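Listing S7. Sequence submitted for prediction.
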Amino acid sequence: METHPDIVDMRMRHEMAERATSTPQGQAVGTLAFLTGIYMAASPWITGFNGLSTLAVNNLIVGIAYALLMSGGFGRAYERTHSMAWGACILGIWMIISPWVVAGNVSTTKTIVNNVITGAVATLLALAATAAAGKAESGKSRHSGMSAPYASGR
């Protein structure tokens, strides 16, 4: 049973994801992304535009979603992290354009500067996570031909 191709492949994917997340770069991107998401959620109260309720609620929801996506709150396998990082990328872009799209007159200098800088940082961190996940996936495809053959006599 231990030489079955599916078990060997699952074990190899788990080891690859473990190696990728244990690198200093992977840990740094994950930590910075989590902190960026927390800042996104708290930014209306930190920078003082919590009176603009539609944008404050938008930043709170997007920040929590970004922090959960990028911290691995929904999964640890790098195949899923790759998709989640693309979703986080979209959230970062949404942060950039949200002062002009959210209902109400919320596009003040303070909100624009906050959301554009935070959204750009969030997008760059999500792209870094996507690149790391893509690198881990390409490493998996290189090693996929090395799996042990299935021993039918066992």
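Caption to Listing S7: primary sequence and predicted structure tokens for the chain studied. Helices lie at 5-21, 24-47, 53-70, 78-101, 109-143. Residues 33 and 70 are 6 Å apart (CA to CA).
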